[in-house]
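Input record (one chain):
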Amino acid sequence: MSSEALKIPKKQKLVTLWVHPEGRVIGSMYLYEQSESHSGEEQPVEVLNNEAPFLVLHREDLDEARFYNKNSIVRVEYDADAPENASDLTTLQCRLHMMDGSMFEGAIKEFLDPEHARLYDYINQSGERFVKLHVDDTRTYLVNKAYIVHIAQLD
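The corresponding structure, as predicted from the sequence alone:
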């Protein structure tokens, strides 16, 4: 049996990781061409919020794959995906204050149960280690909740 037959089809997505204590790391995450939970390809937030404690990142500068502990990843930045046009998305404008003193403003856009669509409800979802923040039309941040000091809702 050839090793090609054992490969799982994946695409690379260029991202910037901010890792504690290493700092800024640029590389590509591997994403399934088909997500297990929705139509279309897997999203970076799915990789970061799955149960596996490490993710694989291909470092172009070193031409090697490294395995990063998700607990040490402060945030992940990447080019924004195509905007979702779903009318039932809840949009929560907010400001995140981080342990290192940095601050980010943006919007959380998620499908939320109307009875649990407050920012407090979203941020306290169990099993979700990273918050997806749409910083603007061109950038998306995935922020590790463990590094958030406080979060405030904006009008």
